[in-house]
C-alpha cells in the first residue's frame, strides 16, 4: 500500500486548505501538527475510538479529509470523509479515468479497506507502524512507587537450599515399560522444578536490577543538579573582582547618560560664548596713538595755532587749537575704549573657564562609580557595562535557580525513597544472587520439557494411549508448542526471501564479534532476510491461527514487552518465533545505536528482552535510559524492515528522534533510507539530519 495524496480542510494545526502529494521513499513534513489523526480517521472510519472531532479547527467552514492510495495489486483507491456528514470509498476506473463509488456506508469502509488493501487493525498500525517521541522508554512516565520493595521474604524462605542439580542423561526406556518411564519422568520433573525455582530467582534478579537502575537514575539526577550548581557558581564567580562592582549600579546607568547630556549641553553653551568673546578679543582694534599720524597731525596743528597766537597779534587764531585737539582726543578715547573692551573680554574668558571646570567636576562626581566600574570591568562604553551587568545578574539567577532545584530534588519524596531503598535493594540483590550462584549450572525449563517429550515419544510413540495417559498425568509439556508449529494452517506460508534487505542489514558494523555474528546472519554477511536458524514469520492477513502464547505485558509497563505483544498479535507468531526471526536485524541495529556497547539482543525463556555486549548482559529494564531507547528503536526498526519485505505499509513518524544525540540521529536516518527503499515513510520533523535523501513537504 502506498499513499499518493492527502487533502485536508479545517484541521487544527494545518492551513485551512492543504494538499500533500506523496512519492515513494521518505517524506519529511514540516508541519505544526501530527498528520496521524487525519490518516487514522480516513483509514479506520468505522472505529469508534477515532475521535477526529477533537482536531477540528475552531470556526472552520468545513471539516473534511481525502486520501488517495494504491493497493498492492496496483488499484488506486480514494477515501473521502466529511467529518460532519457523508463518507465514501472510491475506486479509480482506469479505462474511464475517473473514480467510482465502491461504498458510502461508513460502517462498511473499514472492513472493505482491510479486505481489499490488507490493512492491519488500528491498534496494530498505531503500535507497529507509527512512532512518536512519547513512545520511547526514556519518555515514559515513572511509576508512582518505583522503589517499593516487598519486605516479605517468603519467596526466598519458601525455596529450599538449591544444591547443584545433577544432570539427567537421556534414559532409554523400552516401549511398554511404564514403571521405568515414570521413574525417568519423575527425575526430569524434579529437575524441572529446580530449574523453575532458579528461573524465578533470575527474574527476581532482573527486577531488582531494574529497580536499582531507577534508584540510581534518581540519585544521579541530584548529582547532575549538584554539578550544574557548581558550574553555575563558578560562572558567577568570574564576575566578582576587586574593587567590587555595586549591585545597584544598573539604576545609575541612566543617571550617567543624563549627567553626560547635561555636561555636553553646558560645554556647548560655554563654547559658543567663548567663541563670541574670542571674536571680540581677536578682532581688529584702533591704531596705537604713537603710530597714528592723525593723532600727531591734530596735536601739531593745535600747537601751531597756539604758537601763532603767542607770537603774532592774531590772538584769535588760538581758538583754532580747540578743534585741532578734538581729533587727537577722539582717537585717544577710541584707544582707551578698545583697551577696556579687551580687558572685559579677558575677564569673561576666565569666567567661562570656571563654568567649564564646574560642569566637568559635576559630571565627574555624578559618574564616578560608573567610571570606576567600567575601569574594573575593562570596558570603555556604558552599553558594554550594561551588558556585563545583565550577564552577571543572569549568572546569579542561575545559581539561585540551580540551588533551588537541588534543594527541591533532595527534599522530593522520590529522592528520599531512592536513598532509603538502595541499601535494601543491594542487600536483596546479593541474597538472590547468592541463591542463584548456589544453584550452579542447570538446564532451562524448555530443554527439560523437550527431554520429557523425547522420552515419552521414545517410550510410547506418537498417539499411543499410554502416552496420552502420561500427558494427562504430567501436563501438556512442550509438545504442544512443537506440534502446533510443525503444521501451520493452510494459507499462511513462509516469508518469501528477497535477498539481503537494504534497511538495517545494509548498515552493519565492521568487525562484529563472533557472538553477534552467531545471532545476526545479516551482520555476518549472509544474504537474505529469512534469518537462517530461525523460523520465518507467517504472512499476517487478518485471519488464521492465534499466537502460540498470549502476549505478556510487564506489570511496570515494559515498552519492549508491549511492543513484542503487539508484534506477536500482528505476525501471528509466538514471542520465541518473533525474536528468533528479528534477532539478527535487531542485534545489528542495536550494535550501531549503542556504539558497540551492546552487540546482541537475546531473550530469556519467559520472553524477556536481554541485551549483551562489551558491558555485560543486562535485562531491558535494568539498562540506562539511553540504552533502553536504543534497544527499543532496534526492535521497532527491525519490525519495520521485516514488514517492508512482505507487505509494506506506510510508516508514520511524529518526530520520534528529536531526543537522540546527533550521532544516533544520523544512524537512524541512514537506516530509514534503506527501509524506505521498499516502503513509504511520512516523517513529521524539522531535524536537518533527517532531510538527507528525503522529499520535504511544507504544510502551508
Automatic annotation (TrEMBL):
<keyword id="KW-0472">Membrane</keyword>
<keyword id="KW-0812">Transmembrane</keyword>
<keyword id="KW-0175">Coiled coil</keyword>
<feature type="region of interest" description="Disordered">
    <location>
        <begin position="527"/>
        <end position="560"/>
    </location>
</feature>
<dbReference type="InterPro" id="IPR027417">
    <property type="entry name" value="P-loop_NTPase"/>
</dbReference>
<feature type="coiled-coil region">
    <location>
        <begin position="191"/>
        <end position="225"/>
    </location>
</feature>
<keyword id="KW-1133">Transmembrane helix</keyword>
<protein>
    <submittedName>
        <fullName>Chromosome partition protein smc</fullName>
    </submittedName>
</protein>
<feature type="transmembrane region" description="Helical">
    <location>
        <begin position="293"/>
        <end position="311"/>
    </location>
</feature>
<feature type="transmembrane region" description="Helical">
    <location>
        <begin position="317"/>
        <end position="337"/>
    </location>
</feature>
Amino acid at each position: 500500500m502506498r499513499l499518493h495524496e492527502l487533502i485536508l480542510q479545517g484541521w487544527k494545526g494545518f492551513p485551512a486548505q492543504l494538499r500533500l502529494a506523496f512519492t515513494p521513499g521518505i517524506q519529511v513534513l514540516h508541519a505544526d501538527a501530527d498528520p496521524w489523526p487525519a490518516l487514522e480517521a480516513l483509514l479506520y472510519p468505522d472505529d469508534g475510538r477515532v475521535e477526529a472531532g477533537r482536531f477540528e479547527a475552531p470556526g472552520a467552514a468545513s471539516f473534511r479529509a481525502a486520501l488517495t492510495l494504491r493497493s498492492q495489486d496496483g488499484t488506486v483507491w480514494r477515501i473521502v470523509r466529511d467529518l460532519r456528514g457523508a463518507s465514501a470509498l472510491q475506486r479509480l476506473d482506469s479505462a474511464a479515468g475517473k473514480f467510482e463509488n465502491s461504498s458510502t456506508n461508513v460502517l462498511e469502509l473499514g472492513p472493505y479497506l482491510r479486505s481489499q488493501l490488507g490493512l492491519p487493525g488500528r491498534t496494530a498500525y498505531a503500535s507497529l507502524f507509527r512512532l512518536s517521541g512519547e513512545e520511547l522508554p526514556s519518555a515514559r512516565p515513572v511509576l508512582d512507587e518505583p522503589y517499593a520493595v516487598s519486605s516479605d521474604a517468603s519467596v526466598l524462605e519458601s525455596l529450599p537450599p538449591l544444591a547443584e542439580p545433577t544432570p539427567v542423561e537421556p534414559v532409554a526406556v523400552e516401549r511398554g515399560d511404564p514403571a521405568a518411564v515414570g521413574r525417568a519422568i519423575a527425575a526430569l520433573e524434579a529437575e524441572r522444578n529446580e530449574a523453575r525455582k532458579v528461573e524465578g530467582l533470575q527474574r527476581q534478579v532482573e527486577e531488582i536490577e531494574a529497580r536499582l537502575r531507577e534508584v540510581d537514575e534518581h540519585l544521579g539526577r541530584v548529582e547532575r543538579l549538584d554539578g550544574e550548581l557548581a558550574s553555575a557558581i563558578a560562572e558567577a564567580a568570574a564576575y566578582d573582582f576587586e574593587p567590587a562592582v555595586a549591585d545597584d549600579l544598573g539604576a545609575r546607568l541612566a543617571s550617567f547618560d543624563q549627567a553626560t547630556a547635561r555636561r555636553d549641553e553646558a560645554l556647548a553653551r560655554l563654547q559658543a560664548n567663548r567663541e563670541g568673546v574670542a571674536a571680540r578679543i581677536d578682532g581688529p582694534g584702533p591704531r596705537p596713538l604713537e603710530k597714528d599720524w592723525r593723532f600727531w597731525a591734530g596735536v601739531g596743528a593745535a600747537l601751531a595755532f597756539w604758537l601763532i597766537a603767542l607770537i603774532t597779534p592774531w590772538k584769535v587764531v588760538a581758538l583754532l587749537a580747540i578743534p585741532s585737539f578734538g581729533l587727537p582726543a577722539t582717537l585717544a578715547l577710541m584707544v582707551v575704549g578698545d583697551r577696556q573692551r579687551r580687558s572685559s573680554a579677558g575677564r569673561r574668558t576666565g569666567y567661562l573657564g570656571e563654568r567649564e571646570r564646574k560642569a566637568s567636576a559635576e559630571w565627574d562626581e555624578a559618574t564616578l562609580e560608573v567610571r570606576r566600574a567600567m575601569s574594573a570591568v575593562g570596558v570603555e562604553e556604558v552599553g558594554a557595562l550594561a551588558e556585563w551587568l545583565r550577564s552577571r545578574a543572569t549568572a546569579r539567577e542561575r545559581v539561585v535557580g540551580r540551588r533551588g532545584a537541588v534543594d527541591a530534588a533532595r527534599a522530593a519524596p522520590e529522592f528520599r525513597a531512592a536513598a532509603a531503598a538502595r541499601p535494601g535493594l543491594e542487600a536483596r540483590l546479593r541474597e538472590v544472587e547468592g541463591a542463584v550462584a548456589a544453584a550452579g549450572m542447570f538446564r532451562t525449563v524448555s530443554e527439560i520439557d523437550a527431554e520429557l517429550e523425547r522420552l515419552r515419544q521414545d517410550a510410547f510413540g506418537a498417539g499411543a494411549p499410554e502416552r496420552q495417559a502420561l500427558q494427562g498425568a504430567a501436563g501438556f509439556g512442550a509438545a504442544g508448542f512443537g506440534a502446533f508449529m510443525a503444521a501451520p494452517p493452510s494459507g499462511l506460508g513462509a516469508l518469501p526471501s528477497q535477498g539481503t534487505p537494504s534497511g538495517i542489514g545494509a548498515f552493519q558494523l565492521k568487525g562484529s564479534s563472533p557472538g553477534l555474528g552467531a545471532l545476526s546472519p545479516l551482520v555476518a554477511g549472509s544474504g537474505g532476510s529469512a534469518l537462517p536458524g530461525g523460523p520465518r514469520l507467517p504472512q499476517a492477513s487478518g485471519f488464521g491461527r492465534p499466537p502460540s502464547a498470549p502476549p505478556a505485558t510487564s506489570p511496570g509497563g515494559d515498552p519492549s514487552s508491549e511492543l513484542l505483544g503487539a508484534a506477536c498479535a500482528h505476525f501471528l507468531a509466538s514471542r520465541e518465533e518473533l525474536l528468533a526471526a528479528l534477532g539478527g536485524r535487531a542485534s545489528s541495529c542495536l550494535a550501531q545505536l549503542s556504539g558497540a556497547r551492546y552487540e546482541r539482543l537475546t531473550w530469556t525463556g519467559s520472553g524477556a528482552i536481554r541485551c549483551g555486549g562489551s558491558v555485560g548482559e543486562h535485562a531491558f529494564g535494568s539498562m540506562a535510559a539511553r540504552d533502553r531507547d536504543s534497544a527499543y528503536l532496534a526492535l521497532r526498526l527491525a519490525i519495520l524492515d521485516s514488514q517492508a519485505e512482505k507487505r509494506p505499509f506506510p510508516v508514520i513518524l511524529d518526530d520520534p528522534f528529536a531526543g537522540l544525540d546527533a550521532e544516533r540521529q544520523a544512524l537512524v536516518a541512514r537506516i530509514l533510507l534503506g527501509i524506505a527503499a521498499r516502503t513509504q515513510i511520512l516523517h513529521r520533523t524539522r531535524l536537518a539530519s533527517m532531510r538527507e535523501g528525503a522529499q520535504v513537504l511544507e504544510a502551508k
